[in-house]
Amino acid sequence: xxxxxxxxxxxxxxxxxxxxxxxxxxxxxxxxxxxxxxxxxxxxxxxxxxxxxxxxxxxxxxxxxxxxxxxxxxxxxxxxxxxxxxxxxxxxxxxxxxxxxxxxxxxxxxxxxxxxxxxxxxxxxxxxxxxxxxxxxxxxxxxxxxxxxxxxxxxxxxxxxxxxxxxxxxxxxxxxxxxxxxxxxxxxxxxxxxx
Length: 195
Description:
Layout: H1 5-17, H2 22-54, H3 70-115, H4 125-194
């Protein structure tokens, strides 16, 4: 269960205690949709964290963004934008890593052939310069991608903090709503007793 599940129980209990009018039923269904929305995103976040830690393919985010509160939908859209950027960085980093591995293998083959007494094939000066420039460009690109990933990670952390604040605010609003409903019910009962 989510950490704030206990805050939602009084709201649902209050809905159940009231007569099953169309408005009450619609409110209960909306609360169920919101809970399903939150649970699906929380499960996806856990799967994503496990996949990143294990170096596996990232899971696809929840297909539907309907059923959640508007503020949470905005945070989800922001998180998806940040994730798309991080995803592209991850793909580019893997491509660069593959190129580095290929270059290491080529260097190892050259050193083996040199150890076997064969004269290593030397590249013409122009090709050496092109190779050095390509390696420099890749190193600069990798550095740029690392910096970009750091910025995106900070943005993602800020989005998570904002999401936490919104959840806390929603929980406080729900608690205030329950208190207001209880006060209205109490006032209605007092008024009925005075008559």
